[in-house]
Amino acid sequence: MALAHLLQENKGEILEKWISRVLASYPDDAAMIFQREKDRFANPIGYNTRHALTALYDLLFSGDQPDPAKVAAVVEDFVKIRAVQTFTPAAAVAFVRDLKVVVREYCRKQKDAAPALADWHRFEDTLDAVSDQVFDLYMACRERLYKARLHEISHMNHMLTQHGCPSSLLDADQSAKTAVNPIHIHSNEAR
Amino acid sequence: MADTKVAEMSVKVVKEPSLMTGAIPTQDWWDVEAVFKPGNYCYPGKKSIVEYHNQNLPGIFGEAREWDVESDDWKLPDNWKEIIINGIKERLDKFRSLKIFMDCCVRCGACADKCHFFLGTGDPKNMPVLRAELFRSVYRNDFTLAGKLLGEIAGARPMTFKVLKEWFMYFYQCTECRRCSVFCPYGIDTAEVTMMARELLHLVGVNTNWILEPAANSNRTGNHLGLQPHTFKENAEFLLDDIEEATGVRLQNLNFNRKGAEVLFIFPSADVFADPGIFTFMGYLLLFEHIGLDYTISTYTSEGGNFGLFTHNSLMKKLNGKMYAEAKRLGVKWILGGECGHMWRVLHQYMDTMNGPADFLEMPKSPITGTVFENAASTKMVHISEFTADLIKNGKLKLDKSRNDHQVVTYHDSCNTARGMGLLDEPRYILQHACNNFHEMPENTIREKTFCCGSGTGLNTGEIMDLRMRGGLPRANAVKYVQERYGVNLLSCICAIDRATLLASMQYWNPGVEVCGVSELLGNALIMDGEKERETDLRGNPLAGKEE
Predict the structure, then answer these.
(1) Among B80, B114, B249, B294, which residue has the least CB neighbours within 10 Å?
(2) Burial (Cβ within 10 Å: 0-12, 13-18, ≥19) of residue B188
(3) Nearby residues of B75 by Cβ (< 8 Å), 6 or more positions away
(4) Residue A191 to residue B275, Cβ atoms within 8 A
């Protein structure tokens, strides 16, 4: 059976295995809850994982080579979540490679499934391209995170860590009083 | 066919604890150690700040010292375990609620998946039940017969450095938002467990600077940034120019430390210096001018936010007491409070037993509508949303809600005002009268089930930005829904920490959504005497139909 056909025919089973495998990157207790709870607001990680992987699967195996813009649209929110969790960069984007493992295991168990080598190459090339793209998305998320932090710093919240507390005036050496400049900010700078 | 070696390696990469993946727990929860790495902990309190607190409240904040969170030597006092155990004993005797919360949990799991930190991290120790278990296990070991006799079998374990590290990690991944309590059949208030654990950590000098320094500043100069009176006043006055630019009206009513005013107005200090709080402040001033309120602002108590709440009840009491001392000194009749979060938690839940009743003040009565706020009979302090909603209900405000037509608004219930004091409908009532485009987020993410911004209780510091984003995921996920469905571009709220931290959260999760206070939208809608034709909102953005 051609690999593309096999992937389409057995979408339900392969997809479930893939989702389970990706959710298993969380501790067992959490993975169980993320797998079980269907409400998208009560379970943002579980919902986004399922939603993104399902949409990506459809894109990958619907016939043509996947359009990178469409791939980005379906996985971006999911990558955004992985990018701020405690995963290393490699583990955060490993979900694409997970699909390779799932499909290989699936084919191994199917006696009549022996896709041609060319099919495997095409499959692997497709996933490798997506994997590279997902890493770019991951980096874009990290950059966005740092920009948010920079914005926060430039909007005065850094005042707390950058300026001495007036309580420093009460140091044992009272002569230090004259050396401490009063905090002076103007709302002009606050914007 | 498949390359089994690659397949096996892939399994290992994702499944097994390794440097590649970060450890995936394969042991019992209490065998998993807390590992501090840059980005997952707040910087510890500066020595000078702890010294300052120790001068004012001796014996509460431990020994002032420089220490490194990532090191295994936290320079703790030799008898630190004894200090903690004695501290637990003292609190069990003093706070009956703690004793009940320690004993009555049946581990039903109702709270397990309700915490925004659990939902954003997947870390089981962020399940409220397990977070409390970090404390309960020590309680059982030293204070229950079963624990003393059976040890681990009864879920007991002694206090060790490993446990202390867990406490510091996970009681600073709780924002005391109390969402879990809503779902607990026994009403266990995990926030109070966190408060007690943080007090105990403070006793041995384990603390964070982002909380202690604002608390020191609030104590010393009146506000968390340590702005001195002249700076605070100048900042506020500068905003009058912006109000004039947007409305054509030069307000004359801004005043400070005026004795004999009817009302003392206390609000979060961020509203006079930080974007977007400054626009909320403009809304306050426009409202007061509109109704001719006889009010004053104090530079002595120029901070609503009570950072003491995140440290120790004595400091919380002291900072709250400043508000009342100033109300007494100025001779006002009652206090009006701005859009603040933890100021209201402290006020509503703790003020009365700490510093109340405030009998020297009068029962708050709106000078415009005559409404008596009997709900504030003891604290004598009224929330600006209650006050404003009453004005609207009595037809005292002239509003043009079309001035907010360029915005599509949703409302985030701030934890402290929603769950902490039940203020659910008043802000919505104001929004319904101040703007035409308002859409609620899904039912299980608002009102008493609201999700925290993810950065409350002193966690809104830059060094843990990743962690804040994880904690903010459930809230942002709900905002995303209304952004996609209704085109929401403005997230309103009534808390200064929300205004500061949801900004970063939206920039990461939902670009295109701005954050504002409810009073800002009211300020846009208020029709002022002598105003010019309004072209822009208070931010200088063109109104609908006024775009160039």
Answers:
(1) B294
(2) buried
(3) B63, B65, B66, B67, B205
(4) yes
3-state helix, strand, coil in chain A (%, to 5): 70, 0, 30
Helix, strand and coil in chain B, % to nearest 5: 50, 5, 40
Task: For residue B504, give the nearest of A153, A12, A174 by alpha carbon.
Answer: A153
Question: Looking at this predicted complex, what is its ipTM?
Answer: 0.90
Cβ of B10 within 8 Å of Cβ of A166? The answer is: no
H helix runs in B394-459, sequence order:
415-421, 425-434
Cα–Cα distance, B330 to B264 (Å, whole number): 8
Q: Hey, are the CB atoms on B1 and A182 less than 8 Å from each other? A: no
A167 with B52: CB under 8 angstroms? Answer: yes
Q: For tokens 């299980």, what's the residue?
A: B444
pLDDT of residue A62: 79
What is the residue type of A67?
D
* pLDDT tens digits, one per residue of B378-422: 999 999 999 999 999 999 999 999 999 999 999 999 999 999 999
User: In this predicted structure, what is the pLDDT of residue A82?
Assistant: 97
Instruction: Using alpha carbons, select from B544, B439, B534 the residue that is nearest to residue B481.
Output: B439
Does residue A1 belong to the interface with chain B, where contact is any CB pair within 8 Å?
Answer: no
Q: Is omega for the bond preceding B357 within 30 degrees of 0, making it cis?
A: yes
DSSP state, residue A182: P
CA distance A104 to chain B (A): 6
- In chain B, what residues touch A114 (CB-CB under 8 Å)? 1
| Distance between CA atoms of residues B461 and B442, nearest Å | 28
Which positions of chain A have pLDDT values less than 50?
Answer: 157-191
Rounded CA gap, B21 and A42, in Å?
Answer: 26
Question: In chain A, where are the structural domains located?
Answer: 3-156
What's the gap in Å between the CA of B372 and the closest CA on chain A?
37
pLDDT computed for residue A61 by the predictor: 86
Element containing residue A68 per DSSP (H, E): helix A68-83
Answer yes or no: do B124 and A29 touch at CB < 8 A: yes
Ranges of H-type helices in B171-228: 179-183, 190-203, 209-221
In chain B, where are the structural domains located? 1-30, 33-207, 213-525
- The CATH number for A3-156, chosen from 1.10.540, 2.70.98, 2.60.40, 1.10.490, is 1.10.490
pLDDT of amino acid A177? 38
- pLDDT of the residue at A51: 97
Compute the radius of gyration of chain B from its Cα atoms: 24
Closest listed residue to residue B454, CA positions, set B411, B412, B397: B412
B514 bridge partner residues: B490
Candidates B310, B451, B477: best to mutate against A (most CBs of A within 10 A) is: B477
Residues 6+ apart with CB under 8 A from B267: B281, B284, B297, B304, B337, B338, B339, B340, B384, B496
Residues of chain B with pLDDT under 70: 1-27
**The predicted structure's pLDDT at residue A156:** 60
User: Looking at residue A183, what is its pLDDT?
Assistant: 37
Q: Which residues of A147-172 are buried (b: 16+ CB within 10 A; e: fewer)?
A: ebbeebeebbbebbeebebbbbbbee
Tokens of A139: 């980096």
Is residue A162 within 8 angstroms of chain B, CB to CB?
no
